[in-house]
Every structure is written in C-alpha cells, then in structure tokens.
From TrEMBL:
The modification 4-aspartylphosphate is found at D94. The lineage of its organism: Bacteria, Pseudomonadati, Pseudomonadota, Gammaproteobacteria, Pseudomonadales. GO terms for biological process: phosphorelay signal transduction system. It comes from the Bacteria. PROSITE patterns: RESPONSE_REGULATORY. Pfam families: Response_reg. This is Response regulator. The keyword ATP-binding does not apply. Residues 43-154 form the Response regulatory domain. It comes from Pseudomonas cannabina.
C-alpha cells in the first residue's frame, strides 16, 4: 500500500496497474515541483523484486523529477552500479530480495562506490539492522514520507 493524502492505493496479488496508471495520470502530485525538487537532477537506483511496488515507487520518484534506474534483484542492481556510465546518487533497496538480502547488496555497493547513500525500504524495518550511515523507511510509506526521506538524504 502506498498512501495518498486523502486516501490509499491498496494492492493485492491481482494486477491493478492499469487502474493505478490511470489514477496517477489524472491525479498528478501537486505542489512538489515548486518547493521540494532537488536543485540538480539526482539519479536513484530502486531495487525491488515486487514489480507493482517497484513501478509505484519509480512513478512517484519520476513525478518528483528524479531520474530512476530500476532493478528486480541484487544481481541486476550490481551490474548497474558497476557500469561506470551510470550516475547514481542514491541506492534504494528492499531488504527481502530473492538473491541476497538488501544489507548484503548495500555492503557490496559501498565497496564499489563508498560515498553512495543507501536507503532500505522494508515492511520489516524495525527488524533491519541498518549499518551505520545508512537510512531506512518502513513500508507502507506515504508519498510525502518517501519524498521527505529522499530529499533529506540527498541534501
């Protein structure tokens, strides 16, 4: 679930993507462009194995005018990180990835790019042992919570 100011979008196993895409296109996020946008376009790598959740996060971040790279697992994410042509300003990863835990991915990424900030997004955020200097946000999170967390990390 990703909450919106006046309601919620609840997702089940059935694909509701056409309805969600229609909703986002007819209900743009208001007020973000003027007051909350980064000074320079930042690139966020989103690593999430749930396709619908990943698409929603990517849609929100793109609406906030971030450039977004996406990966469905740690292996794909590492390939994107190792490609020196990819500018990445923030790694946002789920903890429960199919091929390795998000914390293990973060440690490998930090070996390659030591200054890259990391944001863990997990439904089990209270149980994540977040390494020092890294950040977390619990699922479900609101659009405002995601915006504020990302903005605070990238400042």
């Amino acid at each position: 679930m990703i909450a919106y100011r006046t309601g919620s979008v609840m997702l089940s196993q059935q694909s509701r993507m056409p309805d969600i895409q229609r909703w986002f296109s007819s209900n743009p996020i208001q007020g973000f462009k003027e007051s909350t946008m980064p000074d320079a376009a930042s690139t966020i790598l989103v690593v999430e194995d749930d396709t619908i959740v990943r698409m929603l996060i990517v849609d929100v971040l793109e609406e906030l005018e971030y450039t977004v790279l996406e990966a469905e697992d740690a292996t794909s994410a590492l390939k994107l990180v190792m490609d020196s042509g990819n500018r990445i300003d923030l790694l946002m990863t789920d903890q429960g990835l199919p091929d390795m835990k998000g914390t293990a991915l973060a440690k490998k990424v930090i070996e390659l790019r030591p200054d890259l900030p990391v944001l863990f997004a997990s439904g089990y955020s209270e149980n994540i042992d977040v390494p020092p200097g890294m950040h977390s946000i619990g699922k479900p999170f609101s659009i405002d919570q995601l915006r504020d967390k990302v903005k605070s990390i990238l400042v």
